[in-house]
Amino acid sequence: MTTDPDIDIVEGHLMIHSLTFGDVLRQNRRSHPRQTAVVSDTGERLTYPELDDRVNRLADVFRASGVSGGDRVVWLGQNSHRLLECVLAAAKCGAVVCPVNWQTEADELAFVIDDAEPGIVFWQSSELERKVAAVRERRDGGARWIQHDGAGADSYEGLLAGASAHDPEGYVDPNEPLLLMYTGAFDGRPNGALLSQTGIMLHGLVVANQTGINEEYVYLNCGPMYRMGVLWNTLATLHLGGTNVFVPRADPELICAAVERYRCMGALIMEPTLSAVIAFNEHAAYDLSSLRSRPGNAGWSAMTTPDPHHRPNSSSQYGQTEVTGLITTAAAGVAGLHGRPSPVAQLRLFGEDGREVAPGEIGEIAVRGPQIMTGYHRRPELNGRRQHDGWHWTNDLGRREADGSITFLGPRGRLIKSGIENIYPAEVEACLRRHPAVADAGVIGVPAADAGGQTLKAIVVVKPGMTTTPDELVRHGLEHLAGYKVPREVRFAPALPMKNAGIDYEALDREHGGGGYPGSRLFTTMTGI
User: For strand 387-388 and strand 391-400, is the pairing parallel, antiparallel, or unpaired?
Assistant: First the structure.
């Protein structure tokens, strides 16, 4: 509270009707005082009271660093209980946490630092020190850089040890952003979606209802925590008073050991990690029977337990980062491939004329409700295109079936799917065009021989009088992009086919074997949610 009594009265009235994740943690320390809240990546267990004390200390560090309402905090590290602490401390201070993709290259990370303008950057030395150094050479951002896995007075643990555990319980607007999640570069650069506490909370409760998350639930944070597919489960587990277990990355041995030791029930394990875990545990050296699994992979089903909450013949689900994850829920026996709209959102489909289309007709999916992002960070023009007339326009095409269920058909723009990752050609093309010998480039997806979706192929036009090679362009890509965004194959052409003042991708596909574009933007093959 403030020292101004009039402001205190207003804030007190607002607090009566608000609920933040900070409030959830405050309640859990009272409702579940003996429950293990987190198991760290080093095996340390924290009860809810112990977690709340640490979060209060971190919030004190935030305030001492000048981080308050709306200020950004960047997490540049792998999975850790400390990332959850950052999110919860931000929830108590009104700050915004941005977990960045630590697997991307220094140029991309520096772009995010520059764009987010954080007050604090938490960074990791183990496995990432060289990359972090390269980022700081390009863009330090004027932020306070704190090593989360270090030692000493200025490290994460050192600062917590010297901070106050007092919780002032000031008012924080739950409708303001808590997370800043950078999405694929569909317009040539990443864009940060701002997600509110209320939206994340309601989304998590819907997920918990469908998947059986409760105070007995143990969730393994092994998938990338810079993805909402992991974070919504992390926060839903915390909200329901369950236990979150952390391993730094999707490593088969770490996953198997954690599942057996802590009897984890859920985890987001996608290909190719799923196959790697099955191969690693081929002889059942680890007991993975506590994990709940859905039908689909015989080898995985033999190691795990059927999910009691899975309904036979149920649909997949559809969503995107901008709507906090899923905007439809799984339903059994429906005509639509992606279930029914979430109970906390509205979903409609509109034609090119802006009118709602009839069932059976194709239209752009538009949604509204509390779980929709508040907007893209520092993108007013893009916000104007994506959010208008009372709707968030997803840029995705779909169809409402006669029974009211939804089928997602694909993005209006071109999207390439490589394993779990979404790749937007515009970003890869922009990188290739930065090479001094490249005049133009078009990137397509080629169906992969395995189940990994697509591989990238680049068709490149070289500037007159200059030369380059495929290997040189691949090396150029690896210097500026994450490995999964770099084309496996580069072909040269005298010119690119054009259509409506842009690249004719359909012609490129026909000529160079493109195809197999995704029919779902989200996790239709989840093993645990």
Answer: antiparallel
From 359, 305, 303, select the one nearest 334 (Cα to Cα): 359
Q: Which domains does the chain have, with CATH numbers?
A: 21-246 (3.40.50.12780), 319-411 (2.30.38.10), 416-512 (3.30.300.30)
User: What span, in angstroms and rounded, lies between the C-alpha atoms of 231 and 215?
Assistant: 17
CA 99 to chain CA centroid, nearest Å: 8
Q: Which residues contact 165 (CB under 8 A, 6 or more apart)?
A: 53, 56, 57, 60
Supply the pTM of this predicted model: 0.84
Calculate the dihedral angle through the C-alpha atoms of 395, 399, 405, 409, rounding to the nearest 10 degrees.
-60
**Residue that the structure tokens 């197999």 belong to:** 516
Matching residue, tokens 């030369």: 467
Place of tokens 């259509």: 499
- For 500, left (φ over 0), alpha (ψ -120 to 50), or beta? left
Tokens of 290: 């506590």
Residues 6+ apart with CB under 8 A from 85: 51, 54, 55, 58
Show the beta-strand stretches assigned E in 234-274.
Answer: 243-246, 266-267
Q: Determine the Cα–Cα distance for residues 203 and 232; give it in Å rounded to an integer.
A: 8
Q: What is the dihedral of CA 485, 491, 494, 498, to 10 degrees?
A: -50
Tokens of 315: 């649909």
Q: How far apart are CA 172 and CA 164, in angstroms?
A: 19
The pLDDT tens digits for 479-514 are: 988 888 999 999 999 999 987 667 888 899 999 999
For residues 352 and 64, which has the higher predicted lDDT (pLDDT)? Answer: 64
* Closest CA relative to residue 437, chosen from 464, 475, 406: 464
Burial code of 490-517, b = ≥16 C-beta within 10 A, e = fewer?
Answer: beebeebeeeeeebebeebbeebebebb
- The string of DSSP letters for 299-320 reads HHHHHSEE-TTPPTTB----EE
